[in-house]
Amino acid sequence: MPRVSSPQNPRFREAARLVESSRERRKSGRCVLEGEHLVAVYCDRIGAPETLLVVEDALADPRVATLVQRVPPLDVLVVSRRMFSTIAALPADIGVLAVVRTPASTPPKPGRFCLLLEDIQDPGNVGTMLRTAAAAGVTQVLLSKQCAFAWSPKSLRAGQGAHFVTTIVEDVDLCAWSAAFRAGGGHVVALVARDGRNLYDSDIGWPLALSVGNEGAGLSDALCAQADIEVTIPMPGGMESLNAAAAAAVALFECVRRSRARGSQ
């Protein structure tokens, strides 16, 4: 395993650029995974990363040592704690950082259970919703063109490996997609903050796509117009609304409950 002491090392510099620049991540089709857990999930689902940066003293951690064994030796760069801390968004104690290719996002054939995210601005919310969607068994998550980048470090950290469990498609025209989904027999449910039907009393059909909107403005009128039904989460406590990620979690798992009750999941 090469030990790198100069920040001018080309692969080290590439990792630094990817951490610092969303534009560079999009342009190169690469992203950065921070921490042993996230890198291990990637290895399980996809394979070895292109480059693995490891803090030298982290090699004493059995989990990190095991992870290193899964990567070709020439693709592992061992660096000092000081060097690592100059580029990682988290403390050097995380010990591991990997450069990987962003999985291709060619729109697949629509699945049975999909999540549509319209103009979600916070990458942490995007990652949290991806994690919830993966836990709920969502097969595809489709993001509008104005959503935060799904492969940013903040989104990846919040997702905790969900990015490699469910299919993610970015820059989607959600109105056109919803129209085609319904034409093929699917059902689109729009989650709105108020004036929709009670989520728990509404008839929800399958295959299903749940639409969740922007943290402040909610879903656009255009996307709501493509829905079969608009639903609202009842809030007897009197709050006006929930955080977008929390609302998505409530609605997704209500869909799971109904599907299980029907014996179809």
Give the SSE string: HHEHEHEHEEHEHEHEEEHEH
Number of domains: 2
Classify the secondary structure makeup into a structural class.
alpha/beta
Our count of helices gives: 10
* CATH architecture label of the largest domain: 3-Layer(aba) Sandwich
CATH class annotation of the largest domain = Alpha Beta
- Unreliable sequence segments: none
Determine the mean pLDDT.
93
Q: Spatial order of the strands in the main sheet?
A: 7-6-5-10-8-11-9
Query: The CATH topology of the largest domain, please?
Result: Alpha/beta knot
How is this structure best described in words?
- This protein is an alpha/beta fold and 265 residues long.
- It has 2 domains: 92 residues, 60s Ribosomal Protein L30, Chain: A (2-Layer Sandwich); 149 residues, Alpha/beta knot (3-Layer(aba) Sandwich), CATH 3.40.1280.10.
- Helices cover 35% and strands 20% of the residues.
- It has 10 helices and 11 strands.
- The strands form 2 sheets. Strands 7-6-5-10-8-11-9 form a 7-stranded parallel β-sheet, with helices on both faces. The chain has a 4-stranded mixed β-sheet with strand order 1-4-2-3, sandwiched between helices.
- It is elongated and about 60 Å long.
- The N and C termini lie far apart (46 Å).
